[in-house]
């Protein structure tokens, strides 16, 4: 079997054979596309030959990994390259960094963790996404993050197959400014082949969950103190958690509690054996499915949202505050992945004020906005709103880009089951407020393209970063082989036109 190419070229590239199925959809089913061809490469030679084939046939290329990105970054009518078969991992001792680990583009974080955990000595990455099913190139290309940093900031180097068919290495040692463009590139420089991360000896983390009335704990000083004494923190607002249907004033936000999560390094032994942990994860998966089905029922019965949400909250908090010790990767990936549990998610990051007061302001704004909707018979979310605190990054296209390494950003993550009525209306109001007040920016990998005028807005607030990035992009992809994204084209063109 061979690939049909332009016959006058007389060339067949046997390692660039597309799969027979020409349909692809992302994880939550929001994106369903029919590209000209879909490739599933398993070697570096495959990547190089796919680029050669695209050049011969005058095709553009976009890439996908696990498909958890809910924006249109992987959408194409031409060639889609799905990198999940590129999954080898090697570990190296590095004279500068101590230990490094190189993962091919399609390696899942779970497989990456397992290689590091079973190495001698055991190793770990310092920060990662809460799910361990994501693939390394997806989290890097979109600037995904954990509870304290974006993953691109843990990179030492990376290799990308550019539009010339060459394998180019990017690192601080070679060219720092180009590396800052490459390590969060939205797939605009080529196909990522491999990524080399700084890793460190395995350590343990104590993960604590506390449930406290808002008015008892939620103030700027408490957040600041907890951040200073922890490895990382997150705060969550669980919708309608104080709902009491037997009370005449059942929708009273003053009864609501805050859910605080924080991680602290410790020399204490882990709280569970591996067998106990696996059994716990099995129970968590079953619970996640049951909760998801309850939340799905609210699509047709949204007025039951406060009651169902309060029931789920009571189940969550029935054992009171908890605090257990895990190996770092088990504490970092605290959400057990269940691919059948799908959701819409909009995430926006804004700069934290020096006194942390704006975090409190926006927490209460979102809670009060939710109750305003409820009083009008609208129930736009049925999953927790998450607030995470991430340090700034020098990655050019990062939404936390800042040359001051001490600047702190708050990520607000608003989720719900797909199909929930009024979700877009609710999240648009949140996003627009944060845009107007703080020049906040949406997470590239999440839902953001439905926000009114968002492309024009991003072209303006990212203008300087885009102009710097474009110099690197044009060098490695002058013919725009990888620039096949309508949203990115629109954002870039508006920024670049403004300099003429």
UniProtKB/TrEMBL annotation:
Enzyme class name: oxidoreductase
PANTHER family: D-ARABINONO-1,4-LACTONE OXIDASE, L-GULONOLACTONE OXIDASE
Annotated keywords: FAD, Flavoprotein, Oxidoreductase
Identification of the protein by name: D-arabinono-1,4-lactone oxidase
Family: Belongs to the oxygen-dependent FAD-linked oxidoreductase family.
Domain FAD-binding PCMH-type: 31-202
EC number: 1.1.3.37
Pathway(s): Cofactor biosynthesis; D-erythroascorbate biosynthesis; dehydro-D-arabinono-1,4-lactone from D-arabinose: step 2/2
Coiled coil: none
Listed PROSITE patterns: FAD_PCMH, OX2_COVAL_FAD
Source species of the chain: Gigaspora margarita
One Pfam match: FAD_binding_4
């Amino acid at each position: 079997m061979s690939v049909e190419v332009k016959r006058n070229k007389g060339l067949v590239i046997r390692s660039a054979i597309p799969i027979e199925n020409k349909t692809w959809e992302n994880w939550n089913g929001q994106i369903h596309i029919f590209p000209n061809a879909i490739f599933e490469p398993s070697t570096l030679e495959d990547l190089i030959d796919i680029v050669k084939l695209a050049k011969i046939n005058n095709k553009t290329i976009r890439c996908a990994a696990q498909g958890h990105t809910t924006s249109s970054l992987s959408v194409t009518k031409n060639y889609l390259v799905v990198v999940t078969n590129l999954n080898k991992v090697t570990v190296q001792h590095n004279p500068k960094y101590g230990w490094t680990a190189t993962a091919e583009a399609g390696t899942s974080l779970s497989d990456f963790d397992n290689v590091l955990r079973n190495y001698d000595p055991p190793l770990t990455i310092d920060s990662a996404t809460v799910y361990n099913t994501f693939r390394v190139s997806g989290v890097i290309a979109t600037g995904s993050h954990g509870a304290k940093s974006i993953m691109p900031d843990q990179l030492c180097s990376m290799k990308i197959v550019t539009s010339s068919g060459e394998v180019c290495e990017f690192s601080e040692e070679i060219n720092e400014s180009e590396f800052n463009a490459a390590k969060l590139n939205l797939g605009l420089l080529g196909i990522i082949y491999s990524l080399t991360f700084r890793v460190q000896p395995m350590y343990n983390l104590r993960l604590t969950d506390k449930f406290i009335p808002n008015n008892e704990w939620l103030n700027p000083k408490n957040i600041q103190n907890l951040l200073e004494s922890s490895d990382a923190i997150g705060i969550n607002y669980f919708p309608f958690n104080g709902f009491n249907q037997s009370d005449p004033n059942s929708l009273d936000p003053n009864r609501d509690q805050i859910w605080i999560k924080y991680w602290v390094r410790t020399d204490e032994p882990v709280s569970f054996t591996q067998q106990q942990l696996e059994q716990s994860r099995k129970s968590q998966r079953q619970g996640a499915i049951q909760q998801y089905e309850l939340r799905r029922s609210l699509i047709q019965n949204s007025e039951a949202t406060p009651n169902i949400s309060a029931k789920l909250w009571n189940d969550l908090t029935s054992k009171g505050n908890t605090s257990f010790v895990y190996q770092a990767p088990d504490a970092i990936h605290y959400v057990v992945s269940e691919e059948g549990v799908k959701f819409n998610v909009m995430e926006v990051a804004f700069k934290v004020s020096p006194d942390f007061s704006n975090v409190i302001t926006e927490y209460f704004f979102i809670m009060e906005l939710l109750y305003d909707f409820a009083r009008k018979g609208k129930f736009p979310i049925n999953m927790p709103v998450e607030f995470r605190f991430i340090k700034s990054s020098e990655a050019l296209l990062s939404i936390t880009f800042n040359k001051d390494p001490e600047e702190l950003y708050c990520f607000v993550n608003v989720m719900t089951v797909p199909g929930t009525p009024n979700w877009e209306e609710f999240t648009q109001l949140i996003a627009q407020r944060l845009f107007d007040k703080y020049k906040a920016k949406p997470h590239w990998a999440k839902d953001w393209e439905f926000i009114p005028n968002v492309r024009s807005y991003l072209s303006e607030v990212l203008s300087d970063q885009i102009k710097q990035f474009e110099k690197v992009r044009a060098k490695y992809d002058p013919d725009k082989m990888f620039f096949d994204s309508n949203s990115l084209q629109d954002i870039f063109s508006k920024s670049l036109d403004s300099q003429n």
